[in-house]
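Justification of resources, computational component.

The compute hours requested in this renewal are based largely on the per-chain cost of generating structure records like the one below. Each record pairs the submitted sequence with a full structure-token output. That output is archived, and it is also reused by downstream analysis tasks.
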Amino acid sequence: MTVQTAAPHPAPSTPPGRPSGGPGRPSAASRLVAALRGGLVQALLTIIALIWLTPTAGLFFASLRSADDNAGSGWWTTLLHPGTLTFDNYTAILGDGGLTGAFWNTVLISVPATAAVVVLAALAGYAFAWLEFPGRDWVFLVVVGMLVVPVQIGLLPVARLFREVGLFGTTAGVVLFHVAYGLPFAIFLLRNYFAEIPREMLEAARMDGGTEWTIFRKLVLPVGRPAIASLAIFQFLWVWNDMLVALIFADSGSLPLTVALQSQMRQFGANIDVLAPGAFLSLIVPLVVFFAFQRHFVQGVMAGSVK
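The structure output for this chain reads:
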């Protein structure tokens, strides 16, 4: 008895629905679409970057023009006539004792306010995250609740308090106000970031004989560097660009640059030959701070948002 078996069908050389150019190999059309898609994204990002940089470029060119040139034409005309640019406005600004003093007042306000907030928030954040003490969670809830308190609510009560203790109209008063209103967010940010540190790391350090101060200084601070850098950038930019707090708490001898530039406004127009170079000098310092910490800023911008 002979058994007949059916001949096996030949396997198709190309899977159904796949182009014949080879297994897993994209077609020319798909490669063209991918290239165009990447080029369109890059072109769109370039256009957005140029739009964002246009006001800064306009401010820079306006600061290099005389008051008559700024009044007679737009800043973009200097692209065709670069010979009209001059540094006389910056020379006048640097020779003005009032504006240079206001610049140093801004430095004296921003640097201590930023440093104090970072140091105090780092210590408090570590305590709330890893130290056990009575009422820890309730105190932290109070700190979180202070995040919703607007700055405007505390202006008049704090101004009355500062007047009674002799801090009203001083640089120290402005610094203390910025520190007080910057701490709730700073503590919340760093506490949540420090809480993500593995407990095993801290326990191993304690078993090796490390004190809490040693663990905080040699372990927690290096690990939390991205969050600390982001906090420093946020706090510095907020204090440097502030005008509301300085208008209320600073006197004529402790005015920051923002208030000094605002006082240069004329009654019927802007004193552009003073405001433009002053505003550009005020812009340079935050940019330098941001680019100095930008590699940490990207890592820590979302620090503490989730646990």
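Confidence is low (pLDDT under 50) at residues 1-7, 17-22, 303-307. The longest helix spans residues 28-63.
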